[in-house]
């Protein structure tokens, strides 16, 4: 490539980048169409993802407790959750349509079920790794089963549960976009209707970048939350982080 | 219950089992896209993970990048590549590779990092050099975790390859997308059942691979660790 060609290609690339950025700025909000700009879609994306993760956690905690207590329950429940995870998200969204129509539940119900595949094993592993001497100390101090669970076992399990939440939130934020195929999907809607259907790359690029940014910010918030919730873990954080890393990958 | 009978009829119809849009043809397309994406991803992610795990160089950058890639919306990647490369196999495989690389890469890296220092010392004490330590100690010890990573990726790829149908390519997703377009619930359910069955078979396949690839001495240990 000659110097002139390189310079030309450089200019073209720069024009493309500024074009995408300009589109993003111009379409941040559209006064004429209040629910079609970038901002309302980002807000919807956050709502769909966070509500799904919240419901997923609300399901995983009691289910995980039950599985940690009655160990025979765990393998069949885990198999069920894994099989559910293998159902393509498009199919679940489509199958929800007759029941929930175009309400946001069409996206939220499948998304929260998908988080279980990551959250449930982490809740169970987190509770199982409470050392026996810690549990016995709590019993010796006169803690009943409930108080022992809330005051001792749950806090000890928090790092592993948050490790699961981090993986689940990134996966959910990325998967919300698929719900655009049923008319939901937050930033996915930007990618599909403004980008793909109009053969226009800027909305797709903006949609991808904002999705990734949202996932990274959420992840950072969860890391901070973990530090606040488990101040005692900071001393041996590096060891814990290593122990937690492969847990999310199963 | 009616839906189960409809589903049974759908599967029992002989027309379903022949021709270009029959189940065997669609299944073959689906397996083709998924296998191609998995082979490409493994070819990239396993050597890279072995390298970063063995040397420790760029480990943080690699795992961060993998986490970053995990957040990529699959349909965004798919549609963007369609705009640049046109409809066909390329966008589908690109989107699936983006999905499959992170779990394989992270698990390979962590697998090699997780090898006990004692073992590494022993290998050096036996006179092994860097490359021998990697290939004869670290790779075998990391194999169970690498296989879990590839299995995670494989299940996701098989489930996600259905979106190929949305950009006009084949695979089992055709039943789901066409079923939705025709308001044919049975067809959609049939397609979903096939995808789940393929995912289950994939998981079983990896259980078999584990038996073949993991050294006998490591099997009991990792089984209890799981």
Give the secondary structure arrangement, pairings included.
The complex is a heterodimer of chains A (250) and B (226).
Chain A: H1 3-26, H2 38-69, H3 74-86, H4 89-100, H5 105-128, H6 132-140, H7 145-175, H8 187-196, H9 201-229, H10 237-244
Chain B: H1 2-12, H2 23-55, H3 59-70, H4 74-85, H5 89-113, H6 117-125, H7 130-160, H8 173-181, H9 185-213, H10 216-225
Helix pairs in contact in B: 1-9, 2-5, 2-7, 3-5, 4-5, 5-7, 6-7, 7-9, 8-9
Keywords for this entry:
heterodimer, A: 250 residues, mainly alpha, MetI-like fold, 10 helices, 0% strand, elongated, disordered C terminus, B: 226 residues, 80% helix
Explain what you see:
- The complex is a heterodimer of chains A (250) and B (226).
- Chain A has ten helices and no strands.
- Chain A has helices at 3-26, 38-69, 74-86, 89-100, 105-128, 132-140, 145-175, 187-196, 201-229, 237-244.
- Chain A has a single domain, classed as MetI-like fold, CATH 1.10.3720.
- Chain A is elongated.
- In chain A, helix 3 (74-86) packs antiparallel against helix 5 (105-128) and helix 4 (89-100) crosses helix 5.
- Residues 239-250 of chain A have low confidence and may be disordered.
- Helices cover 77% and strands 0% of the residues of chain A.
- With 250 residues, chain A is mostly helical.
- Chain B has 226 residues and is mainly alpha-helical.
- Chain B has one domain: MetI-like (MetI-like fold, Orthogonal Bundle), CATH 1.10.3720.10.
- Chain B is 80% helix and 0% strand.
- Chain B is built from ten helices and no strands.
- In chain B, helix 1 packs across helix 9 and helix 6 packs across helix 7.
- Chain B is elongated and about 65 Å long.
- Classes of the chains: A mainly alpha (250), B mainly alpha (226).
- Chains A and B meet through helix 3, helix 4, helix 7, helix 8 and helix 9 of A and helix 3, helix 4, helix 5, helix 7 and helix 8 of B.
